[in-house]
Design goal:
three-stranded antiparallel beta sheet; alpha/beta; about 55% helix; elongated; Rossmann fold; six-stranded mixed beta sheet
Length: about 525
Amino acid sequence: MTNSTEHPLASHPPPPASTARDVVLERLKVQAGERVLLRESTVVVPAGRITVLIGGSGAGKSVLLRIIAGLMPPSGSGVQWSGACQHRNGEPLGLIGIVFQQFALFDELSPAANVQFAIDHRANRAQPPEQSADQWLEELRVPKRLPVTLLSGGQKQRLAIARTLAGDPDVILYDEPTSGLDAASGRQVAQLIRRTQQSHHRTSLVVTHDYDTLIPVADHVLLLDAEHQSLIEVPRDQWNRVAELLHPVRLPEPEAPSTNPWASGGTFATFRSICERALIQIGDAALTTLRLPLDLLPAWRRTGWGLRFTAHYLHLVAGASAWLYLVIAGMIAGFVTSYFTLRFIPFALYTKPLLLEDLIASIGFALYRVLVPVLATVLIAARCGAAVAADVGVKKYGHQTDALQTLGVRPTSYLLTPILYAFLIGTPLLTLLAYGSARITGLATFMATHPQAGPFFWQLHLDRLLGGPGTWWLTGSGWLLVKTLLCGMGTGLIAYWQGIRRKDSAAAVSHGITATVLWSTLYVLVVHFITALFEF
């Protein structure tokens, strides 16, 4: 290990006191389940310096980072913690920027838009931004015209750093910045962190297990000691032997299966756990329903970005592929209803001349009031609900939702509210599109089977039970609007909450999509059943 004194970049004068402040982790205690990750510890992350936090895999470094960032509540699921993360004078930490291990970039936005989003959501927008989005990209050498998905890993990392700095945070946290990189690339990242800190004088905390690469650019080193569950400041003269200070993480031995049915892992305990989870989900659903009026309010910090997210989800819900999907569904409904109703009339030779007008009117009523609304909303729930659940699930899995929080944005404001708007707009629109397709297909089918009657005969009788031809507000339109809005709003809620739930793997994202399809289609059918009791 090379001593840091041999690296001139590791020795630089501290920035003015006004630009950075010490961060104090005071009496911090962290516990994951029954396992204690950190006993009461108090350490200082010095202002305007690079502090490297090292520890073995599984010691709890990333958990500690999320606590400092404010992403983990004190009594969250699985992890509990107590203590304080604050400035030395007792003031709470301001905006905390994180450069995530998986970058957490918004893939649907351009590189410049990613940076501009952070600029527009700075804590103090009364002050002019330090730089423009283009200037940040130039400084960090990020291509402007390439989509985010086509950037290399190094370019994505530089973009993540640019976006974090553009948000003007008090503290920057780096989560395993050299993970998965070769030695040469890792050294480049380390030097980039040093240059960034020298240029912008942010208090920086780097969480890593790659101490060989990152300690040479450190000003201060902390060790998360897995053996003693404590945070220890490593003296500078010990930096060249940190490998000796690391202790392997000892995981608790798994318990043998118990024959007690109420013990952990027993049959009754498993049943009890399932019931508890069901009650929690029911409670969450009730709370979500009560919060719905608030979630419908556009509580956007920047209206332009709220509208941009709404346009994004409106494209997912009612884009060109959805139009094609519902047009084809309407064609099927129009053809099947018209052809088989007119084709298989009992004693058609005698009854059709007497009943044809009533049959056409019945077809129009059934298509408008029952068949098309049910078919369209079920398909919207399955197709559009799955698309939105996948989008939100990927954002959760890729930590984009965490990135929103670190920029001071509640995920519900830029995700749930736009999703609800997209479904409230898209569901009635797509249903009417399917109905228009069904009408045209029904007319074509009637003309093919009854060429002697002519299109006027069809048009004259199709809307007779709905208010008559030429009526723009057909009978039952109010019920149709209520049904489609309820179906759309419920589908949006289900898709969001299935997507935003904890995602530790790609399988969890897939499970959220599947659950959305199942629950949203069931919800839509229940809505139609209940409204039918009052409608007819």
